[in-house]
Design brief:
- The protein contains eight helices and twelve strands.
- The strands form three sheets. The protein has an eight-stranded mixed β-sheet, with helices on one face. A two-stranded antiparallel sheet has the order 1-3.
- The N and C termini lie far apart (66 Å).
- It has one domain.
- By secondary structure, the chain is α/β, with parallel strands linked by helices.
Length: 300
């Protein structure tokens, strides 16, 4: 089975449901469609560390409304995205800056109810499935549109610890029993990650490759590794046949590249090293000439 992230209908028809970053002067870089086998990790490159939170938000919206597999089937319940990062504070701060336009909250809620009705014959109930009825709890002009209010992020310190919300949900979290949408933890060993997988059954695991994070290849959970540079030291060590590598559109890097000059600097060579290289070159040349001479000798 294939995973398909950011399909055309999500990027164009849904326009990513208008997800935006509060007080951000520039436009956020929209991703491109990425597809690959569920068992092969995705390696994504973007120069902005905070962009990881934006991608996480987009994956949440896609999973909730259309699913992340090639079949376009969304889960019947909220399953978390597991984010493994050595910078949980920075990720949390960036995630809390993400907002949805008020009208898009209604669109997401209605889309979710239609999907549930198509799958089970029932759209659920606001008393038992508040996560599908956010539009009923918001007033006209309501400013409580932070993504965290609808898709809450929690941090967990160990596999057996209790997840704690990273911030309040502005009085919208009451009676929402669906659990975390994002589960944030620091880089961990494989045993800890395996326990987290067994306990929470994450829909997707996202690894911030800034830290030395390891995935559990036997978990069966799709994995994404986020790199800040195509020149990251960990990338050359990857088997190209065992990964899906994708460089996302990156206005920040493009702006840097347009103003940067590439300079090739040849360091000065010490005199003694120059003499050594000349001696080596002379010896190699003599050896080549000797081998060529032997090749033209008649065979007796």
């Amino acid at each position: 089975m294939n995973i398909r992230l950011f399909p055309e209908q999500f990027l164009r028809r849904d326009a990513c449901f208008g997800l935006f970053k509060l007080d951000d002067a520039g436009e956020l870089d929209l991703p491109i469609t990425i597809e690959g086998d569920i068992g092969i990790p995705f390696h994504i490159v973007h120069s902005e560390p905070d962009h990881l939170a934006y991608l996480t938000g987009l994956i949440l919206l896609q999973a909730w409304t259309t699913g992340i597999t090639e079949f376009g089937i969304s889960p019947t319940e909220r399953r978390p995205l597991l984010v493994v990062t050595d910078r949980p504070g920075r990720f949390t701060e960036a995630y809390l800056q993400l907002h949805l336009p008020l009208e898009k909250v209604r669109a997401i809620s209605m889309r979710r109810r239609v999907l549930l009705f198509q799958k089970s014959g029932s759209p659920g109930s606001p008393s038992t499935d508040k996560a599908g009825y956010w539009d009923l709890f918001l007033r006209s002009g309501d400013e409580r549109t932070r993504l965290h209010n609808f898709f809450p992020a929690y941090q967990i310190l160990s596999a057996t610890g209790t997840p704690r919300p990273v911030a309040s949900r502005q009085h919208l979290g009451h009676r929402d029993e669906a659990g975390p949408a994002v589960l944030i933890t620091r880089k961990s060993d494989k045993d800890t990650l395996r326990l987290l997988h067994e306990r929470y059954r994450p829909l997707l695991a996202i690894f911030d490759a800034h830290g030395v994070a390891v995935s559990d290849p036997d978990s069966g959970t799709p994995a994404i590794f986020y790199h800040e540079s195509i020149f990251a030291p960990e990338l050359p060590r990857l088997d190209p046949d065992q990964v899906v590598l994708c460089c996302l559109p990156d206005a920040r890097f493009q702006h840097f590249s347009s103003r940067a000059d590439l300079c090739l600097i040849e360091p000065p060579e010490p005199n003694n090293l120059t003499r050594i290289w000349k001696d080596v070159d002379g010896a190699l040349q003599a050896l080549i000439e000797r081998m060529n001479w032997l090749q033209v000798l008649p065979f007796f």
